[in-house]
Amino acid sequence: MIKQSAPALDTDVPLRPLTTLGVGGNADRLLRVTSAGDLVEYAAGMAADEPPPLLLGHGSNVVVSDSGFPGTVALMCGGGIEPRSVSGDRVEVVVDAGESLERLVRFAVDEGLAGVECLAGVPGTVGALPVQNVGAYGQDVSQILLHADVLDWRTGRRGRMTARECEFGYRDSRFKREPGRYAVLSVTLGLHRRGLGEPVAYQQLADELGIAVGDRVRLAEVEAAVLTIRRRKGMVVDPADPDSRSVGSFFLNPTIPLPDWDAFSERLLAATGRRPPHLADVGDSVRTSAGWLIEQAGFTRGQRFGTARISTKHTLALVAEEGTKASDIWLAAGTIVNRVHDMCGVRLHPEPRFVGPFDEYPTPGGDGRHA
User: Fold this and answer.
1) Which of 68, 121, 174, 313 is positioned for an S-S bond with 26, CB 3.0–4.6 A?
2) Catalytic: 167?
3) CATH code of the domain made up of 81-232
């Protein structure tokens, strides 16, 4: 049997301009993916011991090592949005993995389809939606995903995973827990044709709209309000805003086991004079604010760590400038993680993926802890 040859690859390709943070070195090889067939063809030509490629959309959730990535990067370039079926007010929409999330939100708002309006301004491609269980302002992908069509790198076969099989958690999924196992080829979303958005579930968004939590307003109003909030925080990618050169929120909001919450709250009240925010109940845990903990640990907006810094708009984003090194992003993240743990007793976890070798960088504090 003749093994199918893989598509042509570019070599020694800079990854810095392919990410929103704009740091890091080159990829050994780059595959430009314009359709699901490109990935399937590549898988068919892979050697038995060859690791799967790193999938890259808009590069909005990765920190690339200064040494680059010693392997193949598959850049998701293609896209497409197709409404498939209608049942009552529910519309099933199939979206290719390489499609821009910005275009998906705009399509849904224009068509009067509720379910993704709170994701306005989130950078990236649709293939990342089920991987990260992407969410914002009370909406997340687990609420609307019907299934994802995937490629299993182990077998080279295509398959379909239901929302249950994706095993979603807070900014988490089976895809994230099994890195390198699957490539998302497309997603099918269940949106609702209402004209009005879903009930607003996030207090900050409700305040921006001048409504109560649980109320509904027109989709376009929700989209505009979300974009306004995100721009104030430097969370909309904009060349004119230096604070938007980031991966967005760098740390996940931590959860505290419910039996430990009262003692945790009292300890921080005694140390800081303030109780930690109670953002949400999550099963038998309470979610609190990573940004608040970072501030209580003594970090400030605009604070520098070598060539990297904290955003001047809020403390949850780490920002790169021209010439910033990935090693300084690593230094900043590690310093924040260690001090928050020492002062607040909570270990923060970075949201972006660190790509390429980072083990050559010194660990802040020299005690074996890192971001």
Assistant:
1) 68
2) no
3) 3.30.465.10
State the CATH class of domain 10-76: alpha beta
- Of the candidates 249, 309, 327, 339, the residue annotated as catalytic is 249
**Strand ranges (DSSP E) for the chain?**
10-14, 26-33, 54-56, 62-64, 69-76, 81-87, 90-96, 113-114, 135-136, 139-140, 145-152, 157-162, 182-193, 255-257, 280-282, 285-287, 304-305, 308-310, 318-319, 353-355
**249 noted as active-site residue:** yes
Distance between terminal CA atoms of the chain?
Answer: 47
Distance, CA of 276 to CA of 270 (rounded, Å): 11
- Conformational region of residue 219, where left means phi above 0, alpha means psi within -120 to 50, and beta covers everything else: alpha
Catalytic annotation, pick one of 41, 165, 167, 351: 351
pLDDT 10s digits, 311-348: 999 999 999 999 999 999 999 999 999 999 999 999 99
For residue 278, CA distances in Å to 77, 174, 261, 265 come to: 40, 27, 9, 9
Torsion-angle region of 234 (φ positive above 0: left; ψ -120 to 50: alpha; else: beta): left
- Tell me the fold of 242-366: 3.90.78
Single out the catalytic residue among 16, 29, 171, 309.
171
Q: In the annotation, is 353 catalytic?
A: no
Confidence band for 2, pLDDT divided at 50, 70 and 90: very low
The whole-model pTM stands at 0.89
